[in-house]
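User: quick one, sequence for these tokens?
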């Protein structure tokens, strides 16, 4: 009851901020969320006359900060005659700045391209009117996304709130289904087979055997450095705690009931009996955390595990310093030939809990939102719908073609109807980590961002 009162107070305060901001600036026009139908002919691309929309986007530090300089957006502008006036925020500042922007209509853009909003964010921003519901725009002006929803209705259900509203546009990646989906386990653990062979060790299958292997890596550090010409201290196990696929939580699945903590953001798990539980309150989780703490105190885990960024994590991995690491793809951290996946470890049981939503493949509900300052939300949605086009979607996810940079991973070939079809990687490893010659999955629905 207390939580609900606090939530109402927060929503009222944020709504008040919106009202005050609007009162202080007569130039801002706010869309109350009512569906605004338009003549579909006005949404045809390319537009007869150049149109400018505004968007908010994040970008990795030390990379190109102007989205319009990127090939994908250059091509989209040519195809649609729509130019986006971007407000670009470095990704390491996004969390601090986005909430300020969302509470001030004077700072809102027509849409937020790389929002990454949580469910609570979406409900909060929808409640006080910063974003608008999109279900009618999807049905009327977004044929690409609607086709995805029609073919796979589960995604529409996953995007819709209890009142029937869709507050955001999703990121969807379909590569396999149910237990064969490639996203079932993201933070996979890998072990250095080269080190195991040199020290005459077997791949561990229990938590005790795993600890013994880490100790061997630590105690034979000088020998490993000399044998493999490693510059830098040996790190038996490295990870980035609470950082998606680099988190070590998969190691504790064998403790207690075997639920582990596959959903580290909310700690939600669903039992085989369809009961929703909090993983972090289970006895197995507590025992697993105590064990990880023991490994840390024994100096078996990277001391920078709680603070390092991706670039630091990769740099140390590429130096050959890790015995165990965690990632979607170990090729991102070191190489493929010297590493093997670490089996699920047995403590009290032997189990892996799939990530929530993984049976419907990769999914992010809050990827992109349209705000209440958009004067022509139908056109905004029609432009965003281009991101779900079969030829565009894979490029947004992995990279493009016909360029001479790191994003140039596909070759444009001709399909059996004689049309263009970007279908194969043009060099050894594509950004998705799926290897040379990877074909775009026929079921790949995708996304903005």
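Assistant:
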């Amino acid at each position: 009851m207390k939580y609900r009162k606090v939530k109402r107070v927060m929503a009222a305060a944020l709504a008040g901020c919106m009202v005050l901001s609007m009162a202080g600036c007569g130039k801002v026009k706010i869309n109350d969320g009512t569906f605004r139908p338009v003549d579909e002919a006005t949404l045809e691309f390319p537009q007869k006359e150049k149109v400018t929309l505004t968007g908010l986007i994040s970008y990795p530090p030390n990379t190109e900060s102007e989205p319009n300089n990127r090939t994908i957006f250059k091509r989209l502008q040519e195809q649609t005659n729509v130019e986006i006036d971007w407000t670009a925020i470095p990704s390491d500042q996004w969390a601090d700045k986005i909430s300020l922007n969302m509470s001030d209509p004077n700072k809102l853009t027509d849409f937020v391209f790389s929002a990454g909003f949580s469910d609570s964010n979406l409900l909060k921003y929808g409640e006080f009117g910063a974003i608008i519901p999109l279900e009618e725009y999807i049905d009327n002006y977004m044929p690409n996304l609607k086709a995805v929803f029609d073919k796979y209705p589960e995604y529409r259900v996953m995007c819709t709130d209890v009142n029937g509203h869709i507050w955001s546009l999703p990121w969807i990646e379909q590569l396999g289904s149910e237990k064969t989906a490639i996203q079932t386990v993201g933070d996979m653990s890998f072990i250095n087979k080269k080190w195991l062979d040199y020290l005459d060790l077997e791949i561990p299958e229990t938590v005790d055997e795993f600890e013994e292997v880490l100790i061997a890596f630590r105690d034979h550090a000088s020998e490993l450095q000399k044998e493999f010409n490693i510059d830098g201290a040996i790190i038996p196990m490295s990870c980035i705690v609470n950082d998606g696929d680099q988190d070590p939580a998969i190691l504790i699945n064998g403790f207690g009931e075997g639920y582990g903590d596959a959903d580290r953001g909310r700690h939600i798990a669903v039992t085989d009996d369809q009961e929703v539980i909090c993983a972090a309150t289970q006895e197995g989780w507590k025992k697993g955390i105590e064990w990880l703490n023991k490994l840390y105190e024994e100096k078996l885990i990277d001391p920078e595990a709680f603070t390092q960024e991706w670039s630091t994590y990769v740099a140390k991995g590429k130096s050959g310093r890790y015995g165990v690491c965690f990632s979607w793809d170990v090729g991102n951290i070191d190489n493929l030939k010297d590493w093997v996946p670490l089996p699920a470890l047995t403590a009290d049981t032997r189990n892996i809990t799939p990530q929530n939503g993984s049976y419907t493949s990769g999914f992010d509900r809050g990827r992109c939102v349209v705000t209440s300052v958009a004067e022509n939300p139908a056109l905004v949605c029609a432009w965003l719908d281009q991101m779900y086009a079969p030829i565009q979607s894979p490029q947004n996810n992995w990279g493009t073609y016909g360029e001479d940079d790191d994003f140039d991973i596909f070759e444009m070939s001709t399909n059996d109807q004689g049309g263009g079809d970007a279908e194969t990687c043009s060099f050894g490893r594509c950004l998705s980590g799926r290897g040379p010659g990877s074909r775009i999955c026929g079921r790949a629905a995708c996304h903005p961002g």
